[in-house]
């Protein structure tokens, strides 16, 4: 057993974790950054489309903030909205200073476009792989310790209790290559492990909700978990990856149905394909259900910069350019969205303006945290902006607070118990289940888009039972080797998180934004709040509702939150199209 | 395509041109590729976990890695299958 000590421990090395490490190191804290893969090639940051919100010094941030707040139905902390925009303006300058490739106009200025989902807010395209590589270089140059291929299995609690009554004192895990058990005692711990997603469904295969699950077991408060449901267009049906829907529509790509109709004209005449993604996915489902499918992405109308930018800035972009037959420049290509666990900021660990969670000693940043800057509405680019800015604040808070405290004393018995829990599956007898089978059982919960968008109590209860069965099975399943052991712990974490999502969805007896229950299709004003979920001492889930803060809020909701059919219900039932045509 | 299905040969490495730099090992987010200590060359240790993310292919300095692009997508369920919609490679 190796025991390390650090001022600040950061779990997860994507954008959020890297910016936290960079900031904490700048403030002279000793920093340890761990990742189950290799920092700079791990998680959704590296795989992202490379779109990020791009405020510049010349922009009026009041206009941008208002669009985020209003489109997000005022379900946010408006102070975070401003903090996000002001912070992101500085992080963009970091990219420029580090020479990260950015899409530029012929005059050399940053090429900006209206972010998908927005009218006033602007985004830009950059090379995420280069940005991640540069972040690793910057962190290393500051003397921070990076531990790659280290899988964290549990947060270390100061009192040895889960949920804890005293706080978080670091974390424990094992080296993925040699199995050595490692204890990292930390004065402040930041989880930045990314999204919750079913393994094998999205090609961002290591975002398994590890940090959310570990924090939840320790007593962390997750909020708005039912908004974890989300969608993305990342698949050219039966072929291969599509290089970013957000990038394509920013350059003028269209969606057409089997009749050649640009169907988004019916559902969102203002933003069209650049609408809120959940609305586009619902419109896709409606077209299929009504017999107007398949749906195609039509790239014949994109500007020339699209082709040059995806070749230069996008992972896999060259594949669309060189290998696809027929030529996408002349032929619309069939496309299909996904719908399931895919949230970046709409749900997660609740954090304050300093990125602190409800647990002493634990902070969160990036997609594992609830993005309270944008509420229910995440435009293209705002999740990666939130990763940078929340990471930056988490690193600052952790570094400053760590100056005032000591490492708590942790009993050796507790560490031995945690080692046994982490490695025990390697010594179990062969079982009928394997980690792969458990992940398959979970992934089967992600049904088709049509089935996945239309929820009801019976369906959610059935899904919840599956997660409970899988969670129980992780307690007896054998891991054949260390690679298998990682996948088994991931299955445990996904199952726990998915269970909280389905429980939260059952608790929310209304429909709102991208969350649609056919048995409760209307919004209910009593749900205009944060919806919190915490684990109680009996292992159950306690729910709470918390009002949005009025402190620092520049905008007040324009009208009372009267009951209405949510946008997904309106689209699926055909009422949205009828409205647009009238 | 499920995780418990047999591996389907999406990824291959040309060991003739590979220099053993191990950048592909670092690049893989899901630990598919390991180094073989005996040969000092990479091996595809866990092929079924490959999700065709292209990171290893992109990072290989000698272009020794190839991925099959013509695979079924990683989605388990397709809305098109559910509704019995046959699709061509493009709209004619």
Q: What do these coordinates show?
A:
- The complex is a heterodimer of chains A (582) and B (92).
- Chain A has 582 residues and is an alpha+beta fold.
- Chain A has a domain of 108 residues: Flavocytochrome C3, Chain A, domain 1, CATH 3.90.700.
- Helices cover 36% and strands 16% of the residues of chain A.
- Chain A has 19 helices and 19 strands.
- In chain A, helix 3 crosses helix 4, helix 6 crosses helix 17 and helix 14 runs parallel beside helix 17.
- The radius of gyration of chain A is 23 Å and the shape is globular.
- The mean pLDDT of chain A is 92.
- With 92 residues, chain B is of the alpha+beta class.
- Helix content of chain B is 15%, strand content 15%.
- Chain B contains 3 helices and 4 strands.
- In chain B, the strands form 2 sheets. In chain B, strands 1-4 form a two-stranded antiparallel sheet.
- In chain B, strand 2 and strand 3 form a beta hairpin.
- At the A-B interface, helix 2, helix 9, strand 14, helix 14 and helix 15 of A face helix 2 and helix 3 of B.
Average pLDDT metric of chain A: 92
CATH class wording of chain B: Alpha Beta
Radius of gyration of chain A equals 23 Å
Range of helix content of chain B:
10-25%
Chain-averaged pLDDT of chain B: 83
Percent of residues in helices of chain A: 25-40%
* Chain pair forming the biggest interface: A-B, 64 and 42 residues
Oligomer: heterodimer
Specify the overall morphology of chain A. Answer: globular
Number of domains of chain B: 1
């Amino acid at each position: 057993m190796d025991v390390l000590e650090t001022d600040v421990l950061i779990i997860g090395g994507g954008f959020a974790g890297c910016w936290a490490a960079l900031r904490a190191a700048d403030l002279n804290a000793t920093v340890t950054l761990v990742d189950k893969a290799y920092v700079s090639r791990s998680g959704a940051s590296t795989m992202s489309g490379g779109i990020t919100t791009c405020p510049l010094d010349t922009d009026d941030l009041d206009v941008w903030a208002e669009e985020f707040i209003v489109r997000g139905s005022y379900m946010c902390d408006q102070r975070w909205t401003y903090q996000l925009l002001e912070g992101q303006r500085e992080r963009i300058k970091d990219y420029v200073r580090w020479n990260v490739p950015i899409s530029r106009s012929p005059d050399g200025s940053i090429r900006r476009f209206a972010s998908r989902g927005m009218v006033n807010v602007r985004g830009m395209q950059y090379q995420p792989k280069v940005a991640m590589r540069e972040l690793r270089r910057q962190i290393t140059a500051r003397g921070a310790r990076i531990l790659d291929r280290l899988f964290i299995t549990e947060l270390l609690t100061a009192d040895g209790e889960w949920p804890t009554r005293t706080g978080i004192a670091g974390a424990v895990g094992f080296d993925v290559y040699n199995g050595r058990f490692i204890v990292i005692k930390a004065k402040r711990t930041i989880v930045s492990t990314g999204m919750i997603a079913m393994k094998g469904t999205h090609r961002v295969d290591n975002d398994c909700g590890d940090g959310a699950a570990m924090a939840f077991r320790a007593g962390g408060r997750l909020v708005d978990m039912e908004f974890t449901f989300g969608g993305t267009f990342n698949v050219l049906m039966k072929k291969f990856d599509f290089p970013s829907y957000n990038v394509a529509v920013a350059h003028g790509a269209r969606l057409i149905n089997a009749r050649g109709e640009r169907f988004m004209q019916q559902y969102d005449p203002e933003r069209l394909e650049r609408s809120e993604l959940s609305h586009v996915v619902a419109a896709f489902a409606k077209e299929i259900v009504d017999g107007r499918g398949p749906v195609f992405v039509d790239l014949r109308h994109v500007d020339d910069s699209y082709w040059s930018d995806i070749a230069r800035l996008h992972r896999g972009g060259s594949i669309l350019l060189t290998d696809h037959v027929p030529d996408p420049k002349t032929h619309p290509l069939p496309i299909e969205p996904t719908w399931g666990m895919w949230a970046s900021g709409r749900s997660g660990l609740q954090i304050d303006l300093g990125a602190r969670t409800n647990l002493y000693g634990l902070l969160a940043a990036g997609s594992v945290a609830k993005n309270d800057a944008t509420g229910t509405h995440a435009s293209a680019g705002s999740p990666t902006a939130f990763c940078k800015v929340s990471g930056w604040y988490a690193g600052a808070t952790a570094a400053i607070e760590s100056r005032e405290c000591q490492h708590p004393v942790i009993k050796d018995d507790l560490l031995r118990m945690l080692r046994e829990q982490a490695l025990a599956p390697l010594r179990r007898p062969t079982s009928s289940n394997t980690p792969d089978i458990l992940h398959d059982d979970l992934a089967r919960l992600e049904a088709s888009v049509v089935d996945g968008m239309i929820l009801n109590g019976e369906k959610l209860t059935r899904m919840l039972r599956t997660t409970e069965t899988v969670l129980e099975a992780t307690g007896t399943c054998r891991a054949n080797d260390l690679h298998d052991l990682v996948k088994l712990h991931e299955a445990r974490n996904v199952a726990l998180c998915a269970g909280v999502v389905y429980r939260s969805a059952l608790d929310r007896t209304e429909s709102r934004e991208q969350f649609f229950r056919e048995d409760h299709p209307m919004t209910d004003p009593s749900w205009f709040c944060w919806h919190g979920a915490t684990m109680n001492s009996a292992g159950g889930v306690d729910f709470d509702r918390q009002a949005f803060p009025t402190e620092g809020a520049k905008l007040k909701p324009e009208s009372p939150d009267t009951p209405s059919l949510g946008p997904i219900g309106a689209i699926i039932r055909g009422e949205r199209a009828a409205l647009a045509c009238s | 395509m499920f995780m418990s299905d047999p591996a389907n040969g999406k990824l291959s490495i040309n060991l003739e041109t590979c220099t053993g730099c191990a950048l592909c090992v670092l690049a893989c987010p899901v630990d598919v590729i390991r180094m073989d200590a005996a040969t000092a060359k990479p091996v595809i240790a866990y092929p079924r976990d490959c999700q065709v993310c292209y990171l290893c292919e992109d990072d290989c300095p000698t272009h020794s890695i190839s991925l099959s692009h013509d695979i079924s997508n990683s989605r388990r369920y397709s809305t098109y299958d559910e509704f019995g919609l046959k699709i061509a490679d493009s709209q004619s």
